Amino acid sequence: MSSNVIVITDSDFEAEVLKSDKTVLTYFWASWCGPCKLVAPSVEKVATEYSDRLKVVKMDVDPNPDTVKLYKVEGIPALRLFRGEKLLLSHEGSITKTKLVEMLEPHLS
Predict the structure, then answer these.
(1) Quick check: 109 pLDDT over 80?
(2) Domain 5-107, architecture per CATH
């Protein structure tokens, strides 16, 4: 992933996501997840194209069970969009870049 996508852990979550001054897209993934490999390029493109309005972080689900449990990540890839401590939207499963952008746009104006 590009430098526009920040890798975080359970211990980073509060500072990087909940206390961020930007809207944050959190991408939950795992190295063994085939669909995650399909979604990753779209997440990276969104991170680059919307870097002025959106912070993108990614979290490997296996070593970070606390955040996964707290935000009810039941399938991966999973996306959670936050503005401060408010969860704006959730999505689980594969998604195209077009659908991802359609989902994000209303929250980035």
Answers:
(1) no
(2) 3-Layer(aba) Sandwich (3.40)
